[in-house]
Model the fold of this input.
Amino acid sequence: MRENERELIEKAKEGDSQAFDELFLSQQKYLFNLMYQLCGDIAKADDLTQEAFILAYKKLLDFRCESSFRTWLSRIALNLFRKECRAKFKNGHYEGIEEIQIPSDGDCPERTVYKSELQWCIVHMLSHLPKKYRIILVLRDLHNISYREIADIMKWNVGQVRINLYRARRLFKKELIKGACKAFADNYLCICQGILEL
Done:
């Protein structure tokens, strides 16, 4: 954890709302993107982001700084996302999803194109992938979060992260090969083969 972040957390724990605002601003875009990539709905992602920050504010005194603020906040947000999924499943309600944007990789336009296609495929196949695999693919392959940080977020060890990421990628590849995105390929330049080689 960066020293500046630790100082902000300590100040926020003492009731300094400006310090918490700085923490909020430093993580708001990341958390919104994470939620949007998982749920595919701007309004729902915004709601989940706000709920996560409200909950983080309420539980800040319990935060022991054993991980980064981002990791702790991601864990809170993912728990809210899981709760939302359970509620939808229980009510038999599943909303449609839309194509979403990802940040550029700067110097590597080919990687950006591959990531964009991968992201579209993940969003397209949300109903085909178990939730834990969807989450780990978004964290690792779209946000490039380290194995250690994913382990902290998911409360797994690094070995479990590697195993579940392997299984998620294998299942994802199986779904692509099975033809889950063929319906879109007629009117879209599908580069799934490049994805399978990542």
Notes: The longest helix spans residues 17-39. Confidence is low (pLDDT under 50) at residues 93-103, 182-198.
